[in-house]
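FAQ: What does the model actually see?

It sees only this:
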Amino acid sequence: MTILDDPSRLRAADPSGMLGTVLAFPSQLAEAWAQAIARPIPRPAEPLAHVVTIGMGGSAIAADLAGAYLAQELRVPLITIRDARIPPYVGPGSVVIATSYSGETEETLAAAGAAIASGAHVLAITSGGRLADLVPGTVLRVPGGLQPRAALAYLLGATLAVFAQWGLAGSCAADVDEAAAVLGALAAETAPSIPAPRNPAKRLAESLCGRIPAVYAGGATLAPVARRWKTQFNENGKTLATWDVFPELTHNEAVGWGASPDLAGRLAAVILLAGDEDARALRRIRVARTSGLEGAVAGVHEVSGRGAGRLARMLSLVLLGDLTSVYLAYLRGIDPTPVVAIDRIKQGMRDP
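And it is asked to produce this:
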């Protein structure tokens, strides 16, 4: 029997309960949306030039996902900044959403302070910390006590509520409801009690174990989803991973599949599909597979999103990736929760 089907070994491998937190994604999303949409979020009086979101790591990906989901209906540009500095165009007329789950992220605090000084309208999404004290405007608080990457649903629900309340996108309510239902069904299908032969997350983790995952988004909408898979493999699975997006990767990365077999053979590709790709996009993916990817890497796996709406399709892929990364950690005998390398870097930055 695989370790993934042994409850006692799973409990021992995950003392902090990361898997349980991941499986709570559906309820976290519904809770965050309901709380944020019920609270009036004051909109700046002047016309909005753009929305700038600032954040790092697991806190930044919420804005990326919101932007991809709403890309076809957002009425102003949305830019995500992963840096301590803000661009010179940020000022009056800018809305800045500073997202830091802990409220203590060094880069986000610096960028938020600069945005406030520029005269931009700044609001924060956080569980507390110095960011909650720094921002003079609206602070949307989410529950604390989690690893930032495990709080994605809370951060995303609050972010979507801002856009919906301000009329920058549709209401989102029906899509959030559908996404929560689809995610709930997927969580039940991929729970630890479901044996590996019938559990898609366990099966994929077993296929990727010992390989470097190369996660390829089938189109621009899924680019932040592929990035999320990559970072979850890094933080939960404690392994190297890479990500890219069609069609761009067929103009550069595809050439890299011609690397020596010893190098390319260490990779296993995961292609993410939303389910609404047009015929030409699908043809490009098929041609890329058959003309170079297959045979160069250790394996190619295609995964499709679930649901009718874009949000459900995106988030079902996010949840599957999160679960796969945790199961991969179990297979490697690693606790998925600690991020010692990140903690070491933070401590080094604090040292004189």
